[in-house]
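TEACHING EXERCISE
Course module: macromolecular assemblies
Task: Read the component lines below, then compare them to the predicted structure of the full complex.
Student: A.B.
Group: 4
Components provided:
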Amino acid sequence: MALSAIDMNALAQRLARLDEVKGRSLWADARLRFGRNKAAMAGVGLLVLCLAFAAFGQAISPYSYDYIDFTIMGHAAEMGAPDWAKGYYFGVDDQGRDLFARAAMGTRISLYVGVVGTAISVLVGTLYGAVAGYVGGWIDGLMMRLVDVLLAIPFMFVLILLLVMFGKSLGVLLIGIGFLSWPSMARIVRGQTLTLKSREYIEAAQATGVPAFRIILRHIVPNLLGIVIVYATLLVPDIILTESFISFLGLGVQEPQTSLGALISEGAKTMRYGTLWQLGFPMLFFIMTMFAFYFIGDGLRDALDPKDR
Amino acid sequence: MTPLIEARNLSVTFAIRREGQMPWAAPKQLQAVKDVSFTLNAGETLGIVGESGSGKSTLARALIRMLPATGKVLFAGTDLLTLPPAQMLARRADIQMVFQDPFASLDPRMTVGQIVAEPLRTHYPHLSAAEVKARVQVMMDRVGLLPNQINRYPHEFSGGQCQRIGIARALIVEPKVLICDEPVSALDVSIQAQVINLLADLRRDFGLAMIFIAHDLSVVKHISDRVMVMYLGKVMEDAPKADLFAAPQHPYTQALLSAVPIPNPAAERAKKMIALEGELPSPMAPPSGCVFRTRCARAQPLCAQQVPALLGGSRAVACHFPGPDTAAQG
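Instructor-supplied answer key:
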């Protein structure tokens, strides 16, 4: 024996007096892996750029998004090209409005719709799916058949109908998108809940006497959050696309407010007059936002589920 | 003295639906546990053994109402199976469970402190955070974990340490009964001994009654006062440990005991093994009469006709032809 009993006792006492060790959670592990992913970090950079543009673009521009320069109005093709000296960084649109300010507003509204729509969908879908999966039995059957019915309804038509019926406003669009996109989220969450439900730690919580709803909130939801986050980051660009399409049709955000979709729609209409900047700049931010979210989503999937690579 | 837990004619039946079966067609019945009765006194340890699929774990889960069961489970006189759900939730503090897989039974997103504190927070919600933490640290120390590891996560521990966390979680609410569902079968042999000794110490200190499920007879022999042998959901033999190991009466118990390796090559070679023929019959279609008859050397026509009753009080055997094994001794 190299160590005497006294040494061992001293060691034990020293260990007992040690400060509490800080554990490394699975979230911390995932953060580390995410940080090492170059594509994902590039996505984060792009997103920060878009966010900064959306937040401060209107403040930087000398013109407001609804200020009309009557000297240029109607002569955008000849006089409206990007002009740094006048402060029209991205040029002027058909109505003589500053495109820089309008693109900033469009980016802001598109991101806003994407994030809030996703948040509604995540909140409703996660709770609905987790409850259905955890409770099981005929309640699960009933809840999931409802989801099937909702998924079978053509989403875009309903959204257009809603906008026509309740008026074309951002609020209706947001609520419509949020509440129409949760069923697929609920399905994913339910499937995940079913696999989690049979884990022993859920059984241990049940055997301990933890009430069902607390088990869902404390054990089920944190453990499926990884998948929910990945799906949510991929849902944001989807919703931005939907909003752009609706705005492209002229049903979404209304003048003088605008969104990227509405701007692109206008740009496409005036393309043949030679005002390509009207299409190019909104398109640039639209594509940057899309890429950013897709890269981040991919990175998160790799970071949160290392077994899947 | 009333026993702490008394199970009377406990049965668990699962309805099995075939894939693509019409919803109105009657599902097949699988009897996982059939007419199991036993008593457990305070401070006593009951070992339950049997091969895979014999219904050991199902029985344990039926006792704490994790599965729908028929019959009676009397805990200190009250029937747990008919208790209203809210009262049952409160009763769960008295019967805690330790699980087989040490990693899977701990929530990977929670720290050790949160895991061990969960039963405490559930059953004693008025305790302050500091009080909960102090109790958790005392309990961690008691099961041989360093209390300063309270903020670590399960994946930062070894299998044996995780099982200690599981034990700490079960004991923090000071239960009267601890159900251990194969607590050591996922661990290395050297770690097994540590965990078994820990359980034995804790049982003495807390005055616990224990139900110890295992398929390893040497483990059961070490820790049990009484041993119950199960086969295909039924009790074959239920006897005090010394009697069961010295003079098994049921041919199935004899076959199980003969399969235990002896750590002495000479004795191991001299030992006669009773090799059981065939497989465990499907529980969907159990043999008529005695369920063990299809693999029993002593089977007679009577065994196919009549179900043997579990007779003999505290030294009970369910066999038409019980007795010491002549083949193994001769």
